[in-house]
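Review form for a predicted model. The reviewer records the input and the model, then writes brief findings.
Reviewer: anonymous (R2)
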Amino acid sequence: MSEDLTIISGTKEDQYRSLIPQIKGLLEGEPDLIANLANVVAALKEQFNWLWVGFYLVKENELVLAPFQGPVACTRIKKGRGVCGTSWAKAETLIVPDVEKFPGHIACSSLSRSEIVIPLWKNNNVIGVLDVDSEAFNHFDETDKKYLEEIVQLIPF
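Model under review:
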């Protein structure tokens, strides 16, 4: 397991390509879910300096806050509410260029302008989401979707 992280500049794709093997190294041989989730969000936050990056896990039919980095966050989200709850309900990645235009958006931070949410899968069920917020409008795109979906698949659930 590696506890070092090399931050690089370059294109978004270059940054993801450099980060993925490092995340693999952080996860290698570590069976504890919380430790793994914490290291993934730390690596993403360090590399990209997003406003907020973190996980929510499904517990008793709600998304419950899990490891994250950034401002304090909503603790519980109901299925179908906000971007996270909608991603969970639809079982698909959502890219939201302007959170204020998303029906039912939950403003956990007034600084958030755009968001991407990726479902976490285990045994064909969504067991949580990775949520990333930016202070910039239209920050996330198909490159983020591709690589963040790849990153969450690395996590042993």
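Findings: The helical segments are 12-27, 33-48, 82-90, 142-154.
Further findings: The CA atoms of residues 80 and 89 lie 5 Å apart.
Recommendation: see findings above.
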